[in-house]
Amino acid sequence: MKWKTRLGAGVTALAAVLGVVSAPAATAAPAAALAAPDISLANIKAHLNQLQTIANNNGGTRSPRGGGYAASVSYVENLLKNAGYTTSRQTCTSCIGQSQNLIAEWPQGDASQVIMLGAHLDSVSAGPGINDNGSGSASILEVALTLARTNPATAKRVRFAWWADEESGLVGSKYYVNNLPSSERTKIKTYLNFDMIGSKNWGYFVYDDVASVKAIFDEYFASIGIQTEGDSEGDGRSDHASFKSAGIPVGGLATGAGDIKSSAQAQKWGGTAGSPFDNCYHRACDTTANIPDTPLEKNSDAIGYALWKLAVAPTQGNDFSVSLNPASGTVQPGQSLQVAVSTATTSGSAQSISLSASGLPAGATASFSPVTISSGGSSTLTITTSASTPTGTFPLTVTADGASVDHTASFSLGVGSSSCAPVTNSTRLDIPDYPGAAVNSPANVAGCARNASGTTKVEVHITHTYRGDLVIDLVAPDGTAYRVKNSSSDSTPNLDTTYTVNASSEAADGAWQLRIRDVGPADTGYLSSWTLTV
């Protein structure tokens, strides 16, 4: 109790050092600056030092299993309140210790158009989690304080979140999204996620889920001469998956975790080939000594650049909105449906807009009539499926590429109907030998109007000369990965077995994946079939 009192005093003092200001009065004129300011590396490191101190005072960890997570929330919240943010804590009843999500909103901009930035604030029990994920949490905290300090005119509402219990399976962010009314979900136009952006043997990875969002980050990195790659290692393994599964456009940054840096990546970014991007990932050595300045500075400035690009704009600029009616629809394989695409000029003059759609399942196509319109006009989207289109529910993104700005709208496409009967994929899938990438085999469940069971069955049949080399995950429709098999020294050939997974927190309907990776050299094989029973 005494320590918490001292922390509160320290926060007040630190707020003065970092130059935090109060929210402006309603009559104050906002600053006119539109270019993103520099995000202070020194201030971010000060936040990380505070998180390290919190861990030191709580058994070396900021896990929700002890007091470290709650103290981290208090530290972040006090700084945000002093800066003028509207903050709230959401108790996550499914999280360890019913830990809390922290939400902070800047009280300016159009509340019906929200740009949201998030990072998980918890660590694993094994260490203080300064890269995973103090780096993301401290960076978006400093971006939030910079937004308050510079106070630009914002065209959209800006919301920040620090998630509870990510390390147990994205529990906090799932709870938040699942408890949002549909009317509130539609207000979130983009969610940006930042998880591990200060890895010691770093790379520069940009989430590639939405091309228009990725392009903003790539634009920044290109301006400072840095090449990026898509983030395959973190795909579906951090909190953006909770938003993506709800049809909300997502983006984000990472610098790598336990994957190995290749020779080509070392040539491109420097560092050590053949070593993990972060050899302290989920370990006690993930301290402030594990964080180099370079990736932390580059990525935090990229976050600021993206936020200013997405939310800060001259009120006199040309802008428009886009909407879909209906926002969801279901067809049988071989059928088609039509969706009305409407636009409106919201400021300035009308502009030319090109329309496109992404996220379509195999065998499905999308066409617009017309494909190019002027804002204020409308188009008809026709989605056509084939007899081979898999059944399931698929989140589609309609992108309206304007001459001045871009916008997206989400559509939920349902294909076919079935029961909760087992689903089998018997298409052969070759498994590349190490160091090849992981491969995925889909299984689509539709018409099963419940969650998957706590005893979900995964029956696997693999021909392989050394099955101990194989690592296998079941990936849920929202991107959550469930490890069913780790690598081992088992030299027995072939794998014919059934695994049991507790997937009771997942909706049964959707596109499931069996992800297989060979992590040992010299032996090869293939997946002959697998069956999923939810």
From TrEMBL:
<dbReference type="GO" id="GO:0008235">
    <property type="term" value="F:metalloexopeptidase activity"/>
</dbReference>
<dbReference type="InterPro" id="IPR002884">
    <property type="entry name" value="P_dom"/>
</dbReference>
<dbReference type="InterPro" id="IPR008979">
    <property type="entry name" value="Galactose-bd-like_sf"/>
</dbReference>
<keyword id="KW-0645">Protease</keyword>
<keyword id="KW-0378">Hydrolase</keyword>
<dbReference type="GO" id="GO:0004177">
    <property type="term" value="F:aminopeptidase activity"/>
</dbReference>
<protein>
    <submittedName>
        <fullName>Aminopeptidase</fullName>
    </submittedName>
</protein>
<dbReference type="GO" id="GO:0046872">
    <property type="term" value="F:metal ion binding"/>
</dbReference>
<dbReference type="GO" id="GO:0006508">
    <property type="term" value="P:proteolysis"/>
</dbReference>
<comment type="similarity">
    <text>Belongs to the peptidase M28 family. M28A subfamily.</text>
</comment>
<dbReference type="Pfam" id="PF04389">
    <property type="entry name" value="Peptidase_M28"/>
</dbReference>
<dbReference type="InterPro" id="IPR041756">
    <property type="entry name" value="M28_SGAP-like"/>
</dbReference>
<dbReference type="InterPro" id="IPR007484">
    <property type="entry name" value="Peptidase_M28"/>
</dbReference>
<dbReference type="InterPro" id="IPR045175">
    <property type="entry name" value="M28_fam"/>
</dbReference>
<keyword id="KW-0862">Zinc</keyword>
<feature type="signal peptide">
    <location>
        <begin position="1"/>
        <end position="28"/>
    </location>
</feature>
<dbReference type="Pfam" id="PF01483">
    <property type="entry name" value="P_proprotein"/>
</dbReference>
<keyword id="KW-0732">Signal</keyword>
<dbReference type="GO" id="GO:0004252">
    <property type="term" value="F:serine-type endopeptidase activity"/>
</dbReference>
<keyword id="KW-0479">Metal-binding</keyword>
<keyword id="KW-0031">Aminopeptidase</keyword>
<feature type="domain" description="P/Homo B">
    <location>
        <begin position="414"/>
        <end position="534"/>
    </location>
</feature>
